[in-house]
Amino acid sequence: MTTTATMRAISQDTHGTPEVLEEVVVAKPAPGLGEVLVAVHAAGINPTDWKNRAQPLTVTGLPLVLGWDVSGVVEAVGPGVTLFKAGDEVFGMLPYPDGVGSHADYVTGPARAFANKPANLDHVQAGALPLAALTAYQALVDTADVRPGQRVLIHAAAGGVGHLAVQIAKSRGAYVIGTASAAKHDFVRSLGADEVIDYHSVDFTKALSDLDVVLDPISFDSEARARSLAVLRPDGILVSILLAPIDAGELAMIAERGIRYEGLLVEADRAGMQAIAHLAETGALRVHIEATFPLDQAAKAHALGETGRTSGKIVLTVKETSAKLS
Asked: Are residues 70 and 105 in the same domain?
């Protein structure tokens, strides 16, 4: 075990533009009860990272080290941990929203937030998966219970959550429709989507009806939500991953139509991570890496993510330098 007492981390003392991020040297953490200390090899970044960097949302304390995704090697285990030993390769999502801090050389987290890293994935690929894949899995499997033959609409199907959701829905035997800009249609079809709709030129509410499930990773306002609700059949379900406010009138309309609306907050989940690992091992789930940046270029990674034009995921490399772009 290394005896190094300090580590690098990407921290911020204030909220604002990507330039508030800076590399600092901080104390290396030690695992507590039920925790593992992981030497981070790669860590994905997600919209929640750059949104929380810009303003206090789900995490509020300063100074702040962001990052929920992590793939790496167990450095040490705390008292009571039986799942892992030092040297195990693991990946997982730190408990959302408070278990933040993976954009660093080392991070601690509950042992049961992690699963064994699939051998066919490098750390960059594994580090890109946890938060986005868990969000898609918990929305489509745990919440919507997608079944064979159901018709599922995935908004922003080329995005971080969306491109994984397409594949998870297909793995469940669904007929999958995605929305994406025209330039990304071939990419979305390559994921297994049965139909792709250009949201710039086609009104999906006129092209679709009687859907079983809609997954919406992007819409916050009631007008956008109403459009997705309009294409559902009775007993259909809209799952939003944005905890947007919903008023009594909307709730009454939803109840009158006999449809469901669920707002999902992703949770750390060992069983979900194991299911994701199995999908990745069998080839049913592959993550697309748009770009990688070394840890000290986290500000550039945030700036790219905020453009809203990327497909798949952006990853910070900490110890891993040979990323596979796929």
From this structure: yes
**Is residue 315 within 8 Å of 45, Cβ to Cβ?**
yes
Separation between Cα atoms, residue 70 and residue 60, nearest integer Å: 21
* Same domain flag for 50 and 122: yes
Q: Are residues 254 and 139 in the same domain?
A: yes
51 & 82 share domain: yes
Shared-domain flag, residues 256 and 176? yes
Chain segment 145-169, per-residue pLDDT in tens: 999 999 999 999 999 999 999 999 9
The domain in which residue 43 lies consists of 6-129+287-317
CB 285 within 8 A of CB 260: no
* Global pTM value: 0.95
Is 66 inside a domain boundary?
Answer: yes
Q: What share of the chain is helix, strand, coil (3-state, %, to 5)?
A: 30, 30, 40
The CATH number of whichever domain residue 145 belongs to comes to: 3.40.50.720
Could you read off the pLDDT of 243-267 as tens digits, one per residue? 888 888 888 989 999 999 999 999 9
SS3 89: strand
Angstrom distance (rounded) from CA 292 to CA 308: 16
Contacts 24+ apart (CB under 8 A), 173-176: 173/147, 173/148, 173/149, 174/146, 174/147, 174/148, 174/149, 174/150, 174/212, 174/213, 175/149, 175/150, 175/151, 176/152
- Beta carbons within 8 Å of 59's beta carbon, 6+ residues apart: 52, 66, 97, 98, 100
